[in-house]
Amino acid sequence: MKNRTVLSTRGKSSSAKKIRVTGPIIFLLLAILLIATIIVFIRQQNARAELLDRQAELNEQLDVISKESESLASQLDNVNNDDYIERIARDELGMVRPGEVIFDSASDPVDER
Questions:
Q1: Is the pLDDT of residue 85 over 90?
Q2: Is this prediction's pTM over 0.90?
Q3: 10 Å Cβ neighbour count for 52?
Q4: If 0-12 CB within 10 Å is exposed, 13-18 middle and 19+ buried, where does residue 18 land?
């Protein structure tokens, strides 16, 4: 009987050693998994921040382009307006209607001696 008791104790001690050896291995694997998860999370947060910055830049560009588009649409409406065309023809091209007399007040004054 003594031998059986010793054998069973030896069997338990070897399995206890296995548990003790696998415990640190499992802990090490969990630690590595946790570190890898943290690294992936940090990288994703950095990528998200970069994408949010890029989105803000693109929204600013969109606002500028939208305002420019509205301005161009307004100019296009003016170009199709007869009053605007006449004003440009008179002011920039110097055109007049038939029978109109042009007084040039910007010319050199005449000497009155």
A1: no
A2: no
A3: 10
A4: exposed
